């Protein structure tokens, strides 16, 4: 059986997933169009937030997530070395009590083991490093990934060289399955593709009643997340990060959005204070985000976050000065373990990606390759399946389906209704 070597692929969403998948599919020779509703790529979550290239300790309760972090990290760094920024230090610390006075969620011993899953992990003394209220702290060789303009410029160049057709400012309103093809309906026209990939961050274009169709009964929440932006008054040659675990604790990460030799911009987030609300739809989250303003963030949220970070890093405000804030809505799985890898699946010829971490784009693209092969196998196979019954494309089931399904009516003068024997005896 021979498949077409070059497929026409439409991808919706110009964030990490959409852009990476577009490049991967171009490498295989497919014709790729990318649709993004905003005026440019990487203007949503991916352009603003995906900062840590996680090695694992951020997920001390989810071994599956830690395994997927390590599985994807090396491949990600090999694929995008220009975007990976190594740190002066990347500290994971174990806090004594979280913002609500709750104790840590994993034991100090379990946290130590999780940090030491990275062979480069070094134990540090929190107090001599200027930190307080910590049970333990570890320094890992965990890098960050570029965001903002630096990421956008990189991908625009790569997508241009690769010949990906970009449709910016182009909102996809509907994806329709046409059997062998799929149709993308945008605000400016219709496009037909062999394969369509929905990489909208699980925010739109999902099949109706998708929750009931999935193999696992997953819970999804759409969370309004903000980050407070600070400027480092004493920047070093390489950036740093400081992440307190595991629960409602603060997190300081660099914002590498330019090629400046020294990184001054940082964000402060918090396990509860900057995750402002959880909704059952993306739209409700967006509408709440629109209602936030500088006053609310500066007067209500910022003091809480600064109180929290200075509890662990007393001199934080001497070094980092507040600049502003940014926010977005992120779809997350509701799981006890805080599982955070991506989920990729196909329904009716359209492939959907539920985002995980940035490095998960590698595994999502690998899964998409397998799903595309399966779609092609089904479309071009000489065996068809209906309700578990298989037959060949040379079978009358396939070729003459209409004719063999057209049945004579009951009582009609037709051979299949003959009851000659009974009729003869009835007459005699
Ligand atoms: C506060 C926060 C911190 C995070 N920190 C990290 C971290 O440190 N490390 C990490 O690995 N991950 C992190 N993440 C997660 C990571 O950033 C995301 O999972 C990832 O960027 C999602 O990429 P995506 O391409 O799937 O989605 P997005 O970046 O959301 O891209 C989807 C795109 O689709 C477009 N779109 C939507 N609907 C349509 C439509 N109908 N038509 C056309 N276009 C459409 C949107 O405009 C958007 O550009 C963080 C997320 C948040 C919110």
From TrEMBL:
Task: Write down the InterPro entries for this protein, in alphabetical order.
Answer: FAD-dep_OxRdtase, FAD/NAD-bd_sf
Mind naming one GO cellular-component term on file for this protein? cytoplasm
**Residue ranges of the FAD dependent oxidoreductase domain?**
9-327
The record, for Pfam families, names: DAO
User: Which Gene3D superfamilies does this one have?
Assistant: D-Amino Acid Oxidase, subunit A, domain 2, FAD/NAD(P)-binding domain
Q: Which PANTHER family match?
A: SARCOSINE DEHYDROGENASE-RELATED
What is the name of this protein? FAD dependent oxidoreductase domain-containing protein
């Amino acid at each position: 059986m021979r498949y077409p070597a070059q497929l026409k692929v439409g991808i919706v969403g110009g964030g990490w997933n959409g852009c990476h998948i577009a490049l991967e599919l171009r490498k295989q020779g497919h014709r790729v169009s990318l649709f993004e509703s905003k005026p440019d790529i990487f203007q949503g979550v991916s352009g603003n937030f995906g900062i840590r290239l996680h090695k694992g300790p951020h997920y001390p309760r989810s071994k599956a997530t830690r395994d997927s972090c390590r599985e994807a990290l090396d491949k990600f760094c090999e694929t995008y070395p220009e975007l990976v920024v190594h740190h002066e230090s990347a500290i994971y610390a174990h806090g004594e009590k979280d913002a609500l006075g709750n104790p840590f969620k994993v034991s100090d011993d379990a946290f130590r083991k999780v940090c030491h899953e990275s062979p480069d992990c070094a134990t540090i003394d929190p107090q001599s490093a200027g930190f307080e209220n910590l049970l333990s702290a570890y320094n890992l060789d965990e890098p960050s990934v570029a965001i903002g303009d630096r990421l956008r410029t990189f991908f625009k160049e790569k997508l241009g060289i690769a010949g990906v057709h970009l449709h910016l400012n182009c909102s996809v309103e509907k994806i329709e399955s046409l059997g062998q093809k799929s149709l993308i309906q945008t605000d400016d026209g219709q496009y037909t593709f062999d394969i369509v990939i929905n990489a909208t961050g699980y925010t739109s274009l999902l099949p109706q009643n998708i929750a009931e169709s999935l193999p696992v009964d997953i819970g999804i929440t759409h969370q309004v997340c903000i980050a407070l932006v600070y400027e480092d008054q004493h920047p070093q040659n390489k950036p740093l990060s400081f992440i307190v675990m595991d629960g409602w604790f603060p997190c300081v990460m660099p914002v590498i959005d330019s090629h400046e030799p020294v990184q001054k911009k940082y964000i402060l987030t918090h396990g509860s204070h900057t995750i402002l609300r959880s909704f059952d739809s993306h739209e409700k989250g967006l509408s709440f985000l629109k209602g936030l303003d500088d006053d609310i963030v500066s007067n209500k949220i910022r003091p809480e976050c600064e109180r929290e970070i200075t509890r662990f890093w007393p001199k934080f405000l001497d070094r980092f000065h507040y600049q502003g804030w940014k926010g977005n809505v992120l779809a997350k799985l509701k799981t006890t373990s805080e599982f955070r890898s991506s989920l990729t699946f196909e329904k009716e010829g359209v492939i959907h990606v539920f985002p995980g971490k940035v490095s998960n784009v590698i595994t999502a693209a690998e899964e998409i390759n397998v799903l595309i092969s399966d779609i092609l196998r089904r479309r071009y196979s000489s065996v068809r399946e209906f309700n578990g019954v298989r037959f060949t494309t040379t079978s009358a089931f396939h070729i003459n389906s209409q004719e063999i399904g057209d049945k004579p009516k009951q009582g009609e003068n037709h051979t299949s209704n003959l009851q000659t024997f009974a009729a003869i005896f009835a007459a005699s």
